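Predict the holo structure. Ligand: coenzyme A.
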Amino acid sequence: MLRGGKVGLRARHEDDIPVLRAELYDDVVNSSRAESGPWRPITPGYQDPRLVVDDEEERRAPFSVVELEGGTLVGSTVLWGIDTHNRSAHIGLGLLPASRGKGYGTDVVAVLCHYAFVVRGLQRLQIETLSDNTAMLRSAERNGFVREGVLRSSAWVLGEFVDEVVLGLLARDWTRDAQAQVAVRTRG
Ligand SMILES: CC(C)(COP(=O)(O)OP(=O)(O)OC[C@H]1O[C@@H](n2cnc3c(N)ncnc32)[C@H](O)[C@@H]1OP(=O)(O)O)[C@@H](O)C(=O)NCCC(=O)NCCS
């Protein structure tokens, strides 16, 4: 398990799947804002690739997010689009509604930076999010991500086109403080 200050990132367990499905993917508004395609109902038992992990898929590293204290499931995160030639990847993240606004999102991004830059040796991370998603923008910026551009009207979200923001962080700009904090916590 990878450990941050408040949350841990561990492998997906079978019993995480119905919780994540009900609280993230069955929620039309959350799903429409977080996914690049339209919301559709998912048949119970369907091996949804967003939830059911394929350990042989080398371009994705999915995690379940749990509280360090008690181990309660609080969300899902993924390092996706892992490109070992350009040494880059993207971050995806969704927390259960009751676990938002507690600093967990910021902590997850910090842990994924450690995983990507230190464990995987990547040199660039990217996050795409809707321009009105203040919590995601702040979680990224708190970890040193900078806004690199705006994709105007690029996302169709529940009846309107919305801008997306592209944020990037290079390994060389990842702050020594952030690096040291996560490295200490992931030891042992
Ligand atoms: C986006 C998300 C991962 C952020 O995680 P979080 O744990 O809620 O965020 P944090 O508690 O770490 O807060 C980060 C910052 O955003 C601010 N913030 C949190 N919720 C906010 C809200 N609803 N509105 C405005 N600001 C908010 C916090 O005050 C904090 O700001 P600071 O760094 O200036 O102190 C989480 O809210 C979530 O899962 N949302 C739904 C799914 C989603 O949008 N995923 C991202 C798709 S790209």
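The domain at 2-124+176-186 is CATH 3.40.630.30 (Aminopeptidase). The chain has a mean pLDDT of 93.
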